[in-house]
Amino acid sequence: MSQNNNSITKKSTWKKLKDAIRGTNADYTKIDIKEAIFLLAVPMILELIMESTFAVVDIYFVGKLGPSAVATVGLTETYMFLLYSIAMGLAMAVTAIIARRIGEKNQEDAAKSAVQSLILALLVSLPFSIAGIFFSKELLLLMGGDPWVVDEGYRYTQWLLGGNMVIVFLFVINAIFRGAGDAAIAMRVLWIANGINIVLDPLLIFGWGFIPALGIEGAAIATTIGRGIGVMTQLWILFKGGKQIRVLREQLQVDVKIMVNIIKTSLGGIGQMIIAMTSWIFLMRILADIGSEAVAGSTIALRIMMFTLMPAWGLSNAAATLVGQNLGAGSPERAEQSVWKIGWYNMVFLVLVSVVYFFFNTRLMQIFSDDPKVIAIGAEWIKILSYCYFVYGWWMVTVQAFNGAGDTRTPTKINLVFFWLIQIPLSYLLAIYFGWEHSGVFWAVFVSETAVGLFTLWLFTRGKWKTVTV
Questions:
Q1: Element (H, E) at 275
Q2: How many distinct structural domains can be found in the chain?
Q3: How far is CA 240 from CA 23, 93, 179, 244, 404, in A?
Q4: Is residue 12 part of a domain?
Q5: What is the tens place of the pLDDT at every residue in 40-89?
Q6: What are the start-end ranges of the H helices in 152-210?
C-alpha cells in the first residue's frame, strides 16, 4: 500500500514539475500555498539560474584575457548597475501592478498596464544609449580605469551601454509575465537569450574559422545579440497571448492615467535600486584605487555570488507575485503565509551555500583566474559572505514582499540608511583610513547587509504593507 502511495506522490510531483515548466492557468489565489510556491518558484529559479550561468561563463572567457579585461567588465557594470536599478525599479512596479490586476480578475487593465510599461522602458533606455555610444572612454576614465581599460576596453562599454534597450525590455517584459503568473514564459525567454550568449561568447571573443577574434568587444556583442533575440521572442509571445495575459492591437496607445500610476509606484523601486547600486559604484571606486587585482577579484567573486543567489532570487520573486495577487484578491493573511514559507525555504538553501563558500572559496576562484592575488582577494570576500547569507535570505524575501505589495518606498528608506549612511562610510573608513584595503570593504559589506536583513525582517512583521493600494 505504501509503495502505491509513493508511486502516486512521485507521479504527482513529476506532473507539478512539468506544469511549472510548461506554465499553467492555475489561480494562485485559490490553490494550495505550497503548490503555488512550487509552480511559480521552479520556472523563476530556472530562469535566473540560466541568467547567472551566462554571467559565470562570460567572466570565465573574459578572465582568459587578463585582469584588465575583467576590470573593464567590473567598471562597466558599475554604470550598468545604474541602468539595472532603473529597469529593476520599473520592473518591480510592473510586477506589483500586473499581479494586483490579475488578482482582481481584470485582465484588460493588466494588458493596458503592460503597454504603458513598454513605452516607459523605451524612454528609460535612450539616455544610457547616448552616454555609452559617445562617452564610453570618459566613463571608464572617471571610474579609475587603467590605460588598457580605457584604450581597449571602451568598445565593451560602448556596446553594452549603447545597446542597453534590449536589457531594459528583457527586465520589464519578464516582469509583466511574472506578475501575471506566466513565470514559465519568462524562464523560456531567458534560456533562449542566454543560451545564444553562451554559444556566441567564445566564438566572438577568441574567433573561429572565418569569425575574427574580437576580444572583450566580442563578449558585449554576444550579449547584445542574445538578449535582442530574447526581446523579440518576448514581444511575439506577449501579443500572441500567454497563459494569463495578452496585449491586443487596439491597446497600443498611450494611457496617461495608467502610466502615471506605474511611474508613481516605480519611484520607490527605482530609488531603492539606485541607492543599492550607487553604493556598489562607490565600493568599486575605492577598490579601483587599491588596484586592478582588487577590482578583478571582487568582480569574479560577485559573479560567483550572483550565480549562487539566483535560486534564492527565484524564490523571492515568487513571493512578490503571490503577495500582489493575494492582496488583489483580498487575502492578506494568505499573502503573509506565503512569505513565511518562502523565507524558511530561502534560509535553508543559503545556509547550504554558505557551507560551500566557507570551505571551497579558493577553489571557486581558481576556476576563473590563475592570478594568485586576484584569487586571494576574491576568495576572502566569498568566505566573508558565508557568514551572513542566512540573514541575507530573509532580507531578499521580505524586500520582495514589500515590492509585491506595491510598497516600494519602505525598502528605499531602508537602503538609504544601511547602504549610503553605513556601508559607504564604513568601507572608506576601514579600507582607506585604517588601511585594511580590500578587506575593509568586504567587512563593511558584511556588517551593513547583516544589519539590513535583520531590520527588514522586523519591519515586515509589523504588517503595514498589507494596507498598500496600487
A1: helix 256-290
A2: 1
A3: 15, 24, 18, 12, 26
A4: no
A5: 888 888 877 777 777 777 778 888 888 888 888 878 877 887 888 888 88
A6: 154-162, 165-180, 183-206
The full length of the chain comes to 470
Q: What domain range is 181 assigned to?
A: 27-467
| Chain center to CA of 49 | 11
CB 325 within 8 A of CB 103: yes
Grid coordinates belonging to 162 = 549603447
Question: Residues 6 or more apart from 458 whose CB is under 8 A from it?
Answer: none
* 3 burial via Cβ count (<10 Å: 0-12, 13-18, 19+): exposed
Report the C-alpha gap between 56 and 77 in whole angstroms.
14
Only one residue has cell 544601511, namely: 418
Burial of 364 (0-12, 13-18, 19+ CB in 10 A): buried
Amino acid making up residue 85: S
The DSSP secondary-structure symbol of 420 reads I
Grouping H, G, I as helix, E, B as strand and the rest as coil, residue 211 is: strand
Tell me what percent of the residues of the chain surpass a pLDDT of 90. Answer: 27
- Closest C-alpha among 172, 176, 165, 171 to residue 224: 165
Whether residue 364 is predicted with pLDDT greater than 50 in this model: the reply is: yes
The CA distance from 149 to 157, in Å, is 10
- Assess if residue 416 is contained within a domain: yes
Residue 2 lies in a domain: no
Q: Which amino acid, one-letter code, is at 178?
A: R
Average pLDDT value over all residues in the chain: 86
Spatial separation of the C-alpha atoms in residues 209 and 245, rounded to whole Å: 44
State the cell numbers at 324: 500582489
Is-contact 451 465, C-beta < 8 A? Answer: no
DSSP 250: G
Cβ atoms of 429 and 440 closer than 8 Å: yes
